[in-house]
Specification:
By secondary structure, this protein is of the alpha/beta class. It is 38% helix and 18% strand. Strand 7 and strand 8 form a beta hairpin. It starts with a strand and ends in a 17-residue tail after the last strand.
Length: 266
Amino acid sequence: MLEVVDINCDLGESFGRWRIGDTDDAALMGLISSANVAAGFHAGDPNLMDQTVRLAAEHGVEVGAHPGYNDLQGFGRRKISGTSKELINDVIYQVGALREFARRHGVRLQHVKPHGALYMEMAVNPELSQIFVQYMRTAAPDSFVFCMGGSATHRAALEAGQPVIREFYADRDYGDNGSIVFTRDAGRPDPAVIARKVVRACKEGKVRTVSGNDIAIEFESICFHSDTLGAFEIVRQMRDALIAEGIRIAPVSELANQKNTRGEQQ
């Protein structure tokens, strides 16, 4: 059973006057411990990045960069073709921009978490993951990589000694292979169902798949999405349920000494 867990959320995922989701980021910020801030390619712009980092700093929430494919129209959820080096240069560009806003507001870059289709591509692409981790070892050796446990990204981070955090997806379904099942329209999920799912994962280390099977799951951070309909009620009920079970919520910077959070594990 997990005694402490991080809650992370993708934030700043709008652009100019365009807004996504039905919940204001400021309302979510007080209920999470880590923020994945969109860095301008799949969503986000300089003003929104600045605003989101400032909100995180005011709430004591740790800041991470959330780089994606250069795909504003598709919200970074479509695969973009390119060489691994080209794609990592896009990541470097975005992480650098977000890190400057973090510096402006006196906070550090706790982590980097690729977004959407780029996250999923890294999960199965060893070359891309290795180049990404090599960049992290050079530019942000003390920042965590957020990824799925057992993915190519996870393996590359472990092998290189890069701090790494495994995620559990609260508002997404799982397949029998442990991978996330993405749908274009997830509708409005039931917050109570998600809360029970999260508590079970923390207490039993299991999750029910779309085919009705139970699989083992290991993680240090719980992710939900700000663009999921009803995001505020999802995180409120999830947080309340965790606390009721005696599970403390804290950023991953406080979990660094736990099992399976650094390269010497496994």
